[in-house]
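Researcher: Let's run the pair from yesterday's discussion. Sequence first, then tokens, for each.
Model: Starting with the first of the pair.
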Amino acid sequence: MKKNIQSKDFQRLAGAFDKFVKVRNYKQGRSNLYRNIITEFLIWLEQAGVSRMQNVTSKESVKYLEYLTARPKKRGNGVLAEKTIKLHLFVQGLFQVYLLENKEIQNIYYIPSVSGETQKPRNILTIEEIKLVYQYAENEMEKALLSIAYGCGLRRSEIANLDLKDVSLIKGMIVVRQGKGNKRREVPMSDTVLEYLKKYIRNERPERLSGRNQNEEAFFINSRGRRSTGENLNEILSKMIEQTGKFELVQKEITLHCLRHSIAFHLAENNAGIDFIRSFLGHTQINTTYIYAVQNKKRKPVVNF
């Protein structure tokens, strides 16, 4: 790899980013560590034929991770340690924040993460896999669950805490009254999601309450006519996935939170703005909105584009 950036625009970005991290007082010792990391990334982009940051996509980001995992150390033998790769990815995240804040780019690209063997990966379903799971939903409640977890991107706890009054069919909105950090937000429903929820509310939910407490406020009702727990809802999702009979899908160990990551991934891949995604998911910080591509234990990215 070349030692210097050739593009004047990339040189400008490297210098501006260096000032950005120093003004923000990110700790990097007395060296220009963060600038050096971004310089390596920009040189790699040049050699990959990318001359503008606006043209960087998740594909380049994942390929760069593959480069890092195979890159020899500059000192000593062997390849980069996992800790070093994580630092490179962290600095890329800061670089993306700089680019967004200074309007150098309009849309985010995904930055892969490196997870240890003891951590479960954040698996993402393809749109085709989402459609397949819908096909194996046995009733209106299961379709409504998929619609709220994937179509609205709610967290497991938010789904379990959802009350009937929080779903406005007239406005086409779901109100999350106490999201993470006790933040309130309104989430729009697509026409498809709205239709699934209408059927559940008008047909199946009353049946589940038949002969029981008609004043139950919970949106999702279990077989005993009471509020479904997050664990119970995850079990329902697991059953749907198992019924597909698709081995690769079952092996992903999908949870409700994976559906949340999936909709975020699909929104970004379809050029939704970061502010919309952040609001949709209920994130406070832009940094949190980066939904990372998944990897297996050998650190090979498993991403569907």
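Model: Moving on to the second of the pair.
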Amino acid sequence: MRERKEKGDSGARGDPRVTRAEPSESGPGFAVCLTHDVDRPYKTYQGLYYAAKSNPGYHLRTLLRRENPYWQFEEVMALERDLGVRSSFYFLNEPSLLETGSLSDWLEPKNWVEHLGRYDLDSASIADAVRDLDGGGWEVGIHGSFRSCDDFDRLRTEKRELEAVLGHEVVGGRQHHLKLGPNTWRYHRELGLKYDASPGSSSENGFQHGYRPFRPFDDDFVVFPLTLMEVSLPDPGSAFDEAWAECERLLDEAEANDAVMTVLWHPRYFNEDEFPGYRRLYRRIIERALDRGAWVGPVADYYRTFLAERTDEESSETETESATAGDAGRSPSP
């Protein structure tokens, strides 16, 4: 990995209710952190919804034949492995309404949407995917459920259950629907998480929260703002050039400001039958970032390498590993 000299920082902007801290780290300069929120690895009720809008034959067929077009772990891994990079996968552990819902919860439609799309972390297929990702050098992190941002006990349970499947502690993650409460980051820090990657938008992209990760408590807990979510772009299936122009604009801005650009691509968007163009667009972002000499990899790798407090001995070991890692700009592959 190649390190670059810092050009300064705009600070964290936007949300007025959190404490801001000027970053003091000298990271690699321009970097792109790759992330995937695992919201719905199975296509269930969505098939009926999409069938009512367009192409009913395809969507009903995926349900009746029990096809699983949203299970894209192997495809994402193959794409990233081909490019010599890794990424972060954040797994959701949404509680079942049948176990925890009150009468008022049952009468709230949005709660049923979350319930009907949920999956079990300890199911054989999900557990295998978690361990395959972890064993291959990808980061597995927590995707805090919709209410966990305001519920310490719920977030603690979700963290423990994910770590039980994973076999070791997680470093960080992102809240479902990017939802943050007044104490969410304090909960994260108290539970031993080292970072959060939630601040951002599903409708707008850019560096509204600054060009660099920041420390809201002036300690080792770090926040990585979200720069780009795929749904904020023009549909690359019908307007690929427009979508790419926006991505390239963000890459230009990131490179010019030595920014850490965090990208979110939900796994289901790698299904070319339903979301044409998104896989190609994601690949192009990575290729162009690498061509520009950016560091590209998982959020946890960036945190451990450039932001975590280390002893002199650990720092020396990391510098030696970085010097022999291979191609500049790539997150080292195992």
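Researcher: Give me one sentence on the second I can quote.
Model: The two ends are 14 Å apart (CA to CA).
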